[in-house]
Amino acid sequence: MRLYLASTSPARLSVLRGAGIEPLCYSPEVDEEAAVREREAELGRPLTAPELTEHLGRLKAEDVVRRHGAEIDGLVLGGDSMFLLDGEILGKPHLPEVALARAKQHRGRTGVLHSGHWLIDHRGGETRGAAGSVDTARVTLSADLADAELEAYVASGEPLELAGGFAIDGLAGAFIERIEGAPSCVIGLSLPALRRLVAELGHPYPALWNR
Length: 211
Fold this sequence. Notes:
The chain has helices at residues 10-18, 32-43, 49-68, 96-106, 147-155, 183-187, 191-200; strands at 2-5, 24-25, 74-85, 88-90, 110-123, 126-141, 176-180. By secondary structure, the chain is α/β, with parallel strands linked by helices. It has one domain: Maf protein. Strands 1, 2, 3, 4, 5, 6 and 7 form a seven-stranded mixed sheet that branches. α4 (96-106) packs antiparallel against α5. It is globular, with a radius of gyration of 18 Å. It starts with a strand and ends in an 11-residue tail after the last helix.
């Protein structure tokens, strides 16, 4: 069973490869801000962070199926992740000063990362089913981190394009004191959630192993 990843995220690709899955990757074309506004208008209320991640994951998977369906014969996975601290969504910091301020805010405290997934069964030229889920992990940053350590991390450039401003599988791995939840969820793709979705669509998860 071939897995198609509706993402070009190196982190998500790394998680899958480490789990014995070599997916075919497609870059989704989704105007996320417009899509969120449209969905919130339909609901008449703001989307929660878990709802956001699953909705965006669904749109990415559906976009790839819509544009590349003729090339696809397998399962298409879309995903999105959001990190919250004190209930505030912290996206990619982009700027060093923003990354440093967020790292200091997170130091010694626990944030929540939501990872949304949407899996589409598209075989034989047609969509046969779809399912979604959100997995959540709690991430605690060490309280004894010195300002100099955080400054060196920001200077490396690693956190600037990462949601929440850290990566457990990168330089910040030594800064993360504790994780409650699936470690892969923190990287952006929950393997336990993927396994459950594959089973929900009627397939054995080991059928994805192709490395």
